[in-house]
Design goal:
mainly beta, 4-stranded mixed sheet, about 10% helix, Jelly Rolls
Length: about 210
């Protein structure tokens, strides 16, 4: 699978590299977070949110909105699913990491998506990127089988357990976007080989992409 640079022109449709916030202290602190054999995601981490850069990210990247800083770490080489939010997501890489990305505009009316349209981008260690709300994304991947550590910044309250009930149907005639909601501010389209929780909408068509292929 071809891996492009986040500094390439192709990335501009999916996001941007953040140059006006110094993420050095966040990268350093992220090095102390666990790297399991699988993948772990924590929406918010108190030690990361206690850093002075928390306020700067809130002010500069989110226009003073309240935010949360968590992390997604581990070992992964597969796509497995794609998700989107009603907001941008900031990713700060403490290690080299690859993001597999798609575009929300390419999701079909029945909420299926062809994985052949996914593009992969390398985020070098120490780099911060904004992933736009119109970009499909999921867990990062490691490089050459190595583990990854990526800080995940989102508006406060994102990716927590929902309070309301949401549609869970595979019937194409009655399906609506509500059936994609799996957490607060999170719409998910999974792959049948992705190992997702029961009830997740499995709308990814084509290969479950693997960087090792």
């Amino acid at each position: 699978m071809e891996i492009l640079s986040v500094r390439s022109p192709e990335f501009r449709e999916y996001g941007r590299v953040i140059e006006n916030v110094d993420m050095t202290e966040l990268v350093k602190a992220l090095k102390n977070t666990p790297v399991p054999d699988g993948v772990v995601y924590e929406p918010g981490d108190a030690s990361l949110e206690a850093l002075p850069v928390y306020k700067e990210i809130s002010d500069v990247c989110y226009g003073e909105m309240p935010i949360q800083i968590g992390y997604c770490n581990g070992h992964n080489s597969k796509l497995n699913a794609l998700e989107y939010h009603r907001s941008s997501e900031v990713n700060v890489a403490a290690t080299d990491a690859v993001l597999m990305l798609g575009l929300l505009k390419d999701v079909e009316e029945d909420f299926t998506y062809d994985t052949s349209k996914v593009k992969a981008f390398l985020v070098p260690a120490g780099t911060a990127v904004e992933v736009y709300a119109t970009t499909l994304h999921y867990a990062p991947c490691g490089v050459d089988g190595k583990g990854f550590q990526v800080a995940i910044v989102l508006p406060k309250g994102t990716n927590y357990t929902t309070k309301a009930s949401h549609a869970r149907t595979s019937d194409r005639t009655t399906r609506n976007e509500d059936c994609l909601i799996t957490a607060t501010n999170k719409w998910l389209i999974g792959h049948e080989e992705g190992g997702l929780d029961a009830g997740s909408f499995l709308g990814l068509k084509g290969k479950n992409l693997d960087l090792n292929d």
